[in-house]
Protein backbone atom coordinates (compact mmCIF):
# COMPACT_ATOMS: atom_id res chain seq x y z
CA UNK A 1 0.00 0.00 0.00
CA UNK A 2 1.45 3.39 -0.95
CA UNK A 3 1.57 6.12 1.70
CA UNK A 4 -1.44 8.42 2.04
CA UNK A 5 -1.14 12.18 2.35
CA UNK A 6 -3.85 14.71 3.08
CA UNK A 7 -4.57 17.89 1.12
CA UNK A 8 -7.25 20.56 0.89
CA UNK A 9 -10.46 19.48 -0.82
CA UNK A 10 -10.80 23.11 -1.82
CA UNK A 11 -7.41 24.83 -1.75
CA UNK A 12 -7.39 28.49 -0.73
CA UNK A 13 -4.77 29.17 -3.41
CA UNK A 14 -6.95 27.73 -6.21
CA UNK A 15 -4.33 25.25 -7.35
CA UNK A 16 -1.34 27.59 -7.54
CA UNK A 17 0.71 25.02 -5.66
CA UNK A 18 1.24 27.08 -2.51
CA UNK A 19 -0.49 24.73 -0.07
CA UNK A 20 1.94 22.71 1.97
CA UNK A 21 0.92 19.34 0.52
CA UNK A 22 2.83 20.52 -2.58
CA UNK A 23 6.13 20.15 -0.70
CA UNK A 24 5.35 16.56 0.19
CA UNK A 25 4.04 15.74 -3.29
CA UNK A 26 7.25 17.18 -4.75
CA UNK A 27 9.42 15.10 -2.40
CA UNK A 28 7.44 11.96 -3.28
CA UNK A 29 7.93 12.67 -6.98
CA UNK A 30 11.66 13.42 -6.60
CA UNK A 31 12.15 10.11 -4.83
CA UNK A 32 9.89 8.22 -7.23
CA UNK A 33 7.37 7.09 -4.62
CA UNK A 34 3.74 6.43 -5.47
CA UNK A 35 1.19 7.91 -3.08
CA UNK A 36 -2.51 8.32 -2.47
CA UNK A 37 -4.25 11.53 -1.44
CA UNK A 38 -7.14 11.96 0.94
CA UNK A 39 -8.86 15.31 0.45
CA UNK A 40 -10.25 17.14 3.47
CA UNK A 41 -12.81 19.89 3.88
CA UNK A 42 -12.01 22.71 6.30
CA UNK A 43 -14.61 21.24 8.63
CA UNK A 44 -13.05 17.77 8.52
CA UNK A 45 -9.63 19.25 9.37
CA UNK A 46 -10.97 20.37 12.76
CA UNK A 47 -12.59 17.03 13.67
CA UNK A 48 -11.08 14.61 16.21
CA UNK A 49 -10.21 12.05 13.53
CA UNK A 50 -7.90 14.50 11.78
CA UNK A 51 -6.63 16.13 14.97
CA UNK A 52 -5.41 12.69 16.04
CA UNK A 53 -3.16 12.78 12.97
CA UNK A 54 -2.36 16.48 13.02
CA UNK A 55 -2.57 18.24 16.41
CA UNK A 56 -2.82 21.66 14.74
CA UNK A 57 -5.64 20.70 12.37
CA UNK A 58 -3.72 21.40 9.19
CA UNK A 59 -2.57 19.61 6.07
CA UNK A 60 -0.51 17.74 4.99
CA UNK A 61 -0.26 14.55 6.98
CA UNK A 62 1.56 11.39 5.93
CA UNK A 63 0.54 7.83 6.80
CA UNK A 64 2.50 4.74 5.89
CA UNK A 65 1.96 1.47 7.72
CA UNK A 66 2.02 2.28 11.42
CA UNK A 67 3.70 5.68 10.98
CA UNK A 68 1.66 8.88 10.99
CA UNK A 69 3.48 12.19 10.57
CA UNK A 70 2.58 15.87 10.31
CA UNK A 71 4.59 19.01 9.38
CA UNK A 72 5.67 19.22 5.76
CA UNK A 73 9.33 19.72 6.71
CA UNK A 74 9.34 16.58 8.84
CA UNK A 75 7.62 14.53 6.14
CA UNK A 76 10.04 15.72 3.46
CA UNK A 77 12.98 14.91 5.75
CA UNK A 78 11.54 11.46 6.50
CA UNK A 79 11.21 10.71 2.78
CA UNK A 80 14.68 12.13 2.10
CA UNK A 81 16.16 9.85 4.74
CA UNK A 82 14.56 6.71 3.35
CA UNK A 83 14.84 7.20 -0.40
CA UNK A 84 17.63 8.44 -2.64
CA UNK A 85 17.33 11.77 -4.41
CA UNK A 86 16.95 14.45 -1.78
CA UNK A 87 20.02 14.27 0.47
CA UNK A 88 23.71 13.84 -0.33
CA UNK A 89 25.55 10.73 0.87
CA UNK A 90 28.31 12.62 2.66
CA UNK A 91 27.33 13.09 6.33
CA UNK A 92 28.47 16.71 6.56
CA UNK A 93 26.77 17.70 3.30
CA UNK A 94 23.65 15.96 4.58
CA UNK A 95 23.66 18.00 7.78
CA UNK A 96 24.08 21.20 5.75
CA UNK A 97 21.16 20.32 3.47
CA UNK A 98 19.02 19.80 6.59
CA UNK A 99 20.18 23.21 7.87
CA UNK A 100 18.75 24.75 4.69
CA UNK A 101 15.45 22.99 5.36
CA UNK A 102 15.27 24.59 8.80
CA UNK A 103 16.40 27.94 7.39
CA UNK A 104 13.56 27.77 4.86
CA UNK A 105 10.82 27.17 7.44
CA UNK A 106 12.21 29.06 10.44
CA UNK A 107 14.15 32.02 9.00
CA UNK A 108 12.83 32.75 5.50
CA UNK A 109 9.18 31.65 5.65
CA UNK A 110 7.93 33.48 8.78
CA UNK A 111 8.34 37.05 7.42
CA UNK A 112 6.83 35.89 4.11
CA UNK A 113 3.79 34.44 5.89
CA UNK A 114 3.49 37.59 8.00
CA UNK A 115 3.45 39.74 4.85
CA UNK A 116 0.92 37.59 3.03
CA UNK A 117 -1.33 37.18 6.09
CA UNK A 118 -1.42 40.96 6.54
CA UNK A 119 -2.48 41.24 2.89
CA UNK A 120 -5.36 38.84 3.51
CA UNK A 121 -6.51 39.78 7.00
CA UNK A 122 -5.53 43.45 7.43
CA UNK A 123 -5.77 44.94 3.95
CA UNK A 124 -8.84 47.00 4.87
CA UNK A 125 -7.40 48.28 8.15
CA UNK A 126 -6.28 51.91 8.51
CA UNK A 127 -2.75 50.84 9.45
CA UNK A 128 -2.18 48.44 6.57
CA UNK A 129 -0.32 50.86 4.30
CA UNK A 130 1.73 52.25 7.18
CA UNK A 131 2.96 48.79 8.20
CA UNK A 132 3.59 47.45 4.70
CA UNK A 133 7.13 48.84 4.20
CA UNK A 134 8.22 47.29 7.51
CA UNK A 135 6.82 43.89 6.52
CA UNK A 136 8.37 44.10 3.06
CA UNK A 137 11.73 45.13 4.49
CA UNK A 138 11.79 42.10 6.77
CA UNK A 139 11.34 39.91 3.71
CA UNK A 140 13.89 41.88 1.67
CA UNK A 141 16.50 41.46 4.40
CA UNK A 142 16.20 37.69 4.08
CA UNK A 143 16.15 37.81 0.28
CA UNK A 144 19.27 40.01 0.21
CA UNK A 145 21.10 37.53 2.42
CA UNK A 146 19.86 34.46 0.59
CA UNK A 147 20.72 35.93 -2.81
CA UNK A 148 24.23 36.81 -1.59
CA UNK A 149 24.77 33.27 -0.41
CA UNK A 150 23.35 31.61 -3.52
CA UNK A 151 25.36 33.85 -5.85
CA UNK A 152 25.63 32.23 -9.26
CA UNK A 153 25.29 28.69 -7.96
CA UNK A 154 22.53 26.46 -9.25
CA UNK A 155 21.46 25.20 -5.82
CA UNK A 156 22.22 26.25 -2.23
CA UNK A 157 24.89 23.65 -1.46
CA UNK A 158 26.04 21.42 -4.29
CA UNK A 159 23.42 19.18 -5.87
CA UNK A 160 19.67 19.78 -5.55
CA UNK A 161 18.51 18.67 -2.10
CA UNK A 162 15.57 18.71 0.29
CA UNK A 163 16.95 22.08 1.41
CA UNK A 164 16.35 23.50 -2.07
CA UNK A 165 12.95 21.82 -2.26
CA UNK A 166 11.86 23.58 0.91
CA UNK A 167 13.49 26.93 0.05
CA UNK A 168 12.01 27.08 -3.47
CA UNK A 169 8.59 26.18 -2.01
CA UNK A 170 8.85 29.00 0.52
CA UNK A 171 10.02 31.57 -2.06
CA UNK A 172 7.16 30.65 -4.40
CA UNK A 173 4.78 32.16 -1.85
CA UNK A 174 6.30 35.55 -2.71
CA UNK A 175 5.65 35.48 -6.44
CA UNK A 176 2.32 37.32 -6.35
CA UNK A 177 3.86 40.10 -4.20
CA UNK A 178 6.35 41.05 -6.93
CA UNK A 179 9.16 41.21 -4.34
CA UNK A 180 11.03 38.38 -5.99
CA UNK A 181 11.34 40.39 -9.22
CA UNK A 182 14.08 42.50 -7.62
CA UNK A 183 16.20 39.37 -7.10
CA UNK A 184 17.12 37.89 -10.50
CA UNK A 185 19.34 35.19 -8.99
CA UNK A 186 16.58 34.02 -6.66
CA UNK A 187 13.96 34.25 -9.41
CA UNK A 188 16.11 32.03 -11.61
CA UNK A 189 16.63 29.65 -8.70
CA UNK A 190 12.88 29.33 -8.19
CA UNK A 191 12.37 28.81 -11.93
CA UNK A 192 14.98 26.03 -11.88
CA UNK A 193 13.04 24.36 -9.10
CA UNK A 194 9.76 24.64 -10.97
CA UNK A 195 11.35 23.20 -14.10
CA UNK A 196 12.25 19.92 -12.42
CA UNK A 197 10.14 17.01 -13.69
CA UNK A 198 9.26 16.06 -10.10
CA UNK A 199 7.95 19.55 -9.39
CA UNK A 200 5.91 19.58 -12.60
CA UNK A 201 4.29 16.24 -11.85
CA UNK A 202 3.48 17.33 -8.29
CA UNK A 203 2.10 20.65 -9.49
CA UNK A 204 -0.13 18.99 -12.07
CA UNK A 205 -1.46 16.56 -9.46
CA UNK A 206 -2.44 19.30 -7.01
CA UNK A 207 -3.89 21.45 -9.81
CA UNK A 208 -6.06 18.54 -10.91
CA UNK A 209 -7.75 18.59 -7.50
CA UNK A 210 -8.83 22.16 -8.17
CA UNK A 211 -9.79 21.87 -11.83
CA UNK A 212 -11.37 18.44 -11.43
CA UNK A 213 -9.40 17.24 -14.45
CA UNK A 214 -6.94 14.34 -14.06
CA UNK A 215 -3.25 15.30 -13.93
CA UNK A 216 -0.90 14.77 -16.86
CA UNK B 1 38.83 19.55 20.06
CA UNK B 2 35.26 20.13 21.26
CA UNK B 3 32.78 21.79 18.89
CA UNK B 4 32.52 25.58 18.95
CA UNK B 5 29.22 27.41 19.01
CA UNK B 6 28.57 31.13 18.69
CA UNK B 7 26.43 33.25 21.00
CA UNK B 8 25.70 36.93 21.64
CA UNK B 9 28.47 38.83 23.40
CA UNK B 10 25.70 41.00 24.78
CA UNK B 11 22.40 39.13 24.70
CA UNK B 12 19.27 41.22 24.06
CA UNK B 13 17.43 39.12 26.66
CA UNK B 14 19.98 39.88 29.41
CA UNK B 15 20.66 36.22 30.14
CA UNK B 16 17.06 35.00 30.42
CA UNK B 17 17.96 32.07 28.17
CA UNK B 18 15.78 33.09 25.23
CA UNK B 19 18.56 33.50 22.65
CA UNK B 20 18.77 30.57 20.29
CA UNK B 21 22.21 29.44 21.44
CA UNK B 22 20.36 28.18 24.53
CA UNK B 23 18.73 25.42 22.46
CA UNK B 24 22.10 24.21 21.25
CA UNK B 25 23.71 24.48 24.70
CA UNK B 26 20.81 22.45 26.12
CA UNK B 27 21.21 19.75 23.45
CA UNK B 28 24.96 19.59 24.12
CA UNK B 29 24.31 19.20 27.85
CA UNK B 30 21.59 16.55 27.34
CA UNK B 31 23.98 14.52 25.22
CA UNK B 32 26.94 15.11 27.53
CA UNK B 33 29.12 16.85 24.95
CA UNK B 34 31.72 19.43 25.93
CA UNK B 35 31.78 22.60 23.85
CA UNK B 36 33.45 25.96 23.48
CA UNK B 37 31.69 29.25 22.89
CA UNK B 38 32.79 32.14 20.71
CA UNK B 39 31.00 35.36 21.63
CA UNK B 40 30.08 37.82 18.90
CA UNK B 41 29.18 41.50 18.91
CA UNK B 42 26.26 42.61 16.73
CA UNK B 43 28.78 44.22 14.42
CA UNK B 44 30.83 41.03 14.08
CA UNK B 45 27.66 39.07 13.21
CA UNK B 46 27.26 41.13 10.03
CA UNK B 47 30.88 40.74 8.88
CA UNK B 48 31.92 38.43 6.02
CA UNK B 49 33.73 36.04 8.38
CA UNK B 50 30.51 35.28 10.24
CA UNK B 51 28.26 35.44 7.18
CA UNK B 52 30.39 32.67 5.69
CA UNK B 53 29.26 30.51 8.63
CA UNK B 54 25.71 31.87 8.91
CA UNK B 55 24.20 33.33 5.73
CA UNK B 56 21.58 35.26 7.74
CA UNK B 57 24.06 36.83 10.14
CA UNK B 58 22.60 35.30 13.28
CA UNK B 59 23.63 33.04 16.13
CA UNK B 60 24.10 30.19 16.91
CA UNK B 61 26.51 28.44 14.60
CA UNK B 62 28.19 25.10 15.22
CA UNK B 63 31.65 24.11 14.05
CA UNK B 64 33.20 20.70 14.54
CA UNK B 65 36.12 19.54 12.42
CA UNK B 66 35.19 20.31 8.83
CA UNK B 67 31.49 20.72 9.52
CA UNK B 68 29.94 24.16 9.93
CA UNK B 69 26.20 24.42 10.60
CA UNK B 70 23.64 27.13 11.27
CA UNK B 71 19.97 27.09 12.39
CA UNK B 72 19.41 25.94 15.96
CA UNK B 73 16.92 23.26 14.87
CA UNK B 74 19.40 21.76 12.44
CA UNK B 75 22.21 21.81 15.00
CA UNK B 76 20.03 20.16 17.66
CA UNK B 77 18.96 17.51 15.14
CA UNK B 78 22.57 16.90 14.12
CA UNK B 79 23.58 16.39 17.76
CA UNK B 80 20.52 14.21 18.38
CA UNK B 81 21.45 12.00 15.46
CA UNK B 82 25.02 11.49 16.59
CA UNK B 83 24.67 11.13 20.35
CA UNK B 84 22.21 9.26 22.56
CA UNK B 85 19.72 11.14 24.69
CA UNK B 86 17.55 13.19 22.36
CA UNK B 87 15.88 10.77 19.93
CA UNK B 88 14.24 7.38 20.48
CA UNK B 89 15.76 4.27 18.87
CA UNK B 90 12.55 3.18 17.12
CA UNK B 91 12.51 4.63 13.59
CA UNK B 92 8.86 5.69 13.66
CA UNK B 93 9.15 7.30 17.08
CA UNK B 94 12.25 9.09 15.82
CA UNK B 95 10.37 10.52 12.84
CA UNK B 96 7.58 11.71 15.16
CA UNK B 97 10.07 13.43 17.49
CA UNK B 98 11.51 15.24 14.48
CA UNK B 99 7.96 16.27 13.47
CA UNK B 100 7.64 17.98 16.86
CA UNK B 101 10.90 19.82 16.19
CA UNK B 102 9.47 21.20 12.95
CA UNK B 103 6.14 21.95 14.63
CA UNK B 104 7.99 23.96 17.28
CA UNK B 105 9.85 26.16 14.80
CA UNK B 106 7.36 26.36 11.94
CA UNK B 107 3.90 26.21 13.57
CA UNK B 108 4.22 27.34 17.19
CA UNK B 109 7.14 29.79 17.12
CA UNK B 110 6.13 32.16 14.27
CA UNK B 111 3.02 33.63 15.97
CA UNK B 112 5.00 33.92 19.21
CA UNK B 113 7.78 35.84 17.47
CA UNK B 114 5.20 38.02 15.71
CA UNK B 115 3.63 38.90 19.05
CA UNK B 116 6.91 39.64 20.78
CA UNK B 117 8.31 41.60 17.82
CA UNK B 118 5.19 43.79 17.77
CA UNK B 119 5.76 44.46 21.47
CA UNK B 120 9.30 45.60 20.77
CA UNK B 121 8.98 47.43 17.46
CA UNK B 122 5.36 48.67 17.36
CA UNK B 123 4.43 49.32 20.97
CA UNK B 124 4.34 53.09 20.45
CA UNK B 125 2.31 52.93 17.23
CA UNK B 126 -1.35 54.02 17.18
CA UNK B 127 -2.46 50.57 15.95
CA UNK B 128 -0.60 48.52 18.54
CA UNK B 129 -3.53 48.06 20.95
CA UNK B 130 -5.98 47.39 18.10
CA UNK B 131 -3.82 44.59 16.67
CA UNK B 132 -2.86 43.00 19.98
CA UNK B 133 -5.95 40.74 20.43
CA UNK B 134 -5.45 39.31 16.93
CA UNK B 135 -1.79 38.53 17.64
CA UNK B 136 -2.62 37.02 21.01
CA UNK B 137 -5.42 34.92 19.52
CA UNK B 138 -3.06 33.45 16.94
CA UNK B 139 -0.81 32.32 19.77
CA UNK B 140 -3.76 31.05 21.85
CA UNK B 141 -5.01 28.94 18.96
CA UNK B 142 -1.68 27.10 18.93
CA UNK B 143 -1.54 26.82 22.71
CA UNK B 144 -5.09 25.41 22.82
CA UNK B 145 -4.17 22.76 20.28
CA UNK B 146 -0.82 21.94 21.87
CA UNK B 147 -2.34 21.68 25.34
CA UNK B 148 -5.08 19.36 24.03
CA UNK B 149 -2.51 17.10 22.47
CA UNK B 150 -0.16 17.07 25.46
CA UNK B 151 -3.01 16.38 27.89
CA UNK B 152 -1.61 14.93 31.10
CA UNK B 153 1.43 13.42 29.46
CA UNK B 154 4.88 14.35 30.68
CA UNK B 155 6.34 14.91 27.21
CA UNK B 156 4.85 15.20 23.70
CA UNK B 157 5.49 11.64 22.53
CA UNK B 158 6.88 9.16 25.06
CA UNK B 159 10.26 9.97 26.55
CA UNK B 160 11.82 13.47 26.48
CA UNK B 161 13.19 14.16 23.00
CA UNK B 162 14.66 16.87 20.80
CA UNK B 163 11.02 17.69 19.96
CA UNK B 164 10.37 18.61 23.59
CA UNK B 165 13.66 20.50 23.80
CA UNK B 166 12.61 22.68 20.88
CA UNK B 167 8.99 23.07 21.99
CA UNK B 168 9.87 24.04 25.57
CA UNK B 169 12.43 26.52 24.22
CA UNK B 170 9.81 28.11 21.98
CA UNK B 171 7.17 28.28 24.73
CA UNK B 172 9.63 29.92 27.11
CA UNK B 173 9.56 32.99 24.87
CA UNK B 174 5.95 33.49 26.00
CA UNK B 175 6.55 33.59 29.70
CA UNK B 176 6.86 37.38 29.99
CA UNK B 177 3.58 37.84 28.06
CA UNK B 178 1.58 36.02 30.73
CA UNK B 179 -0.26 34.02 28.02
CA UNK B 180 1.16 30.75 29.28
CA UNK B 181 -0.52 31.28 32.67
CA UNK B 182 -3.88 30.31 31.15
CA UNK B 183 -2.47 26.90 30.21
CA UNK B 184 -1.55 24.98 33.37
CA UNK B 185 -0.62 21.80 31.48
CA UNK B 186 1.75 23.70 29.20
CA UNK B 187 3.15 25.72 32.10
CA UNK B 188 3.93 22.49 33.95
CA UNK B 189 5.47 21.06 30.77
CA UNK B 190 7.78 24.06 30.45
CA UNK B 191 8.68 23.81 34.14
CA UNK B 192 9.56 20.12 33.67
CA UNK B 193 11.87 21.12 30.84
CA UNK B 194 13.56 23.80 32.91
CA UNK B 195 14.04 21.37 35.79
CA UNK B 196 16.18 19.00 33.73
CA UNK B 197 19.83 19.05 34.81
CA UNK B 198 20.91 19.62 31.21
CA UNK B 199 18.70 22.68 30.93
CA UNK B 200 19.97 24.07 34.21
CA UNK B 201 23.62 23.67 33.24
CA UNK B 202 22.96 25.30 29.86
CA UNK B 203 21.02 28.14 31.46
CA UNK B 204 23.78 28.83 33.98
CA UNK B 205 26.39 28.87 31.21
CA UNK B 206 24.53 31.44 29.09
CA UNK B 207 23.69 33.54 32.17
CA UNK B 208 27.37 33.63 33.09
CA UNK B 209 28.08 35.43 29.80
CA UNK B 210 25.75 38.20 30.88
CA UNK B 211 26.72 38.47 34.54
CA UNK B 212 30.40 37.96 33.89
CA UNK B 213 30.48 35.37 36.67
CA UNK B 214 31.52 31.79 35.88
CA UNK B 215 28.68 29.23 35.66
CA UNK B 216 27.94 26.74 38.43
From TrEMBL, chains A, B:
Coiled coil: none annotated. PROSITE patterns: GST_CTER, GST_NTER. InterPro entries: Glutathione-S-Trfase_C-like (IPR010987), Glutathione-S-Trfase_C_sf (IPR036282), Glutathione_S-Trfase (IPR040079), Glutathione_S-Trfase_N (IPR004045), Thioredoxin-like_sf (IPR036249). Pfam families: GST_N. Residues 8-87 form the GST N-terminal domain. Residues 90-215 form the GST C-terminal domain. This is Glutathione S-transferase family protein. The lineage of its organism: Bacteria, Pseudomonadati, Pseudomonadota, Gammaproteobacteria, Lysobacterales.
Amino acid sequence: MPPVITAFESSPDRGRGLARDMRVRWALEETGQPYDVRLLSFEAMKQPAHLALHPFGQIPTFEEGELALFESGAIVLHLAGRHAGLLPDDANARARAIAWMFAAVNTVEPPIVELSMAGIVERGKPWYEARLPMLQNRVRTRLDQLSSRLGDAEWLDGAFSAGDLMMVSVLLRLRSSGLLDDYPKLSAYVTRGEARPGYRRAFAAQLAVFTGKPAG
